[in-house]
Amino acid sequence: MNKIGVHALTFIGDIENHSIENCLSRVAKIGYDVMELPLLNPDALDTNFVSKIYEKFNIEPTVSLGLSFKTDISSEDQERVNAGRELLFKALQKTIDVGSSNLCGVIHSALQKNDTPKTKRGYENSLSIIRDLAEEANKNNVTLSLEVVNRYETNIMNTAQDALDYIRDLDVPNVKVHLDTYHMNIEENNYSEPIKLIGKDNLGMFHFGENHRGYLGSGHIDFDETFKSLKEINYSGIITFESFSSEVVDPVLSNTLAVWRNLWSDSDDLATESLKFIRSGLQS
User: Is 242 noted as a catalytic residue in this protein?
Assistant: First the structure.
């Protein structure tokens, strides 16, 4: 059985203690197994409190992060690479302290639109930092899952093949691929080929998101093909629902992801219907 998760930004736009507690209470009531916590501001996260709250509601934590221009480890600017390295190791420590064994997201490069293709030096910088991070993560039984996102959000990996090439170049056991239907819809020919290409052994995290990031099943993503392909590779990892609307805003992340539209206003209804949708698809 896959554990089913939900992204915290479905409910809250900050990571203050009271917000996280409120969020986890709602997540548990709806019936999710996992809640993905974005490190919107790692320094502000009270890991001692947050780890206890996750335990209180019996919800498994996963942690995600997206690097910025100033912390881009795929840059040729060594100052930015060093800043990214520092942030990633801080994020890893927060992940460990929260009690999670998964750090995912766009941690291989900046979450931004680039005006040039990736460069050899920048790519090697990214590999070098992630290799060091993976070594430390492995000591603490943490898996790094690198998210494949569209061309408007990175130039390092836009397709499953890009990600597979990257982790083969990396050649460390605890770095996996993080696929997301929203991004696959933009960059891939279909949903089955990339899932089968990555395969069970290399797939560390999977996000379900509609093409417009609204209610699952209200857009044009072929979720039937997605469910079928995940079953064919016997994927048993976490499936997380991710959706964004101007109803719930983090000033940095929402602007970075261009969340201008109000696609839903009732977080609890959205999360409830999405859990039903995913459970139904897994059981069919």
Answer: yes
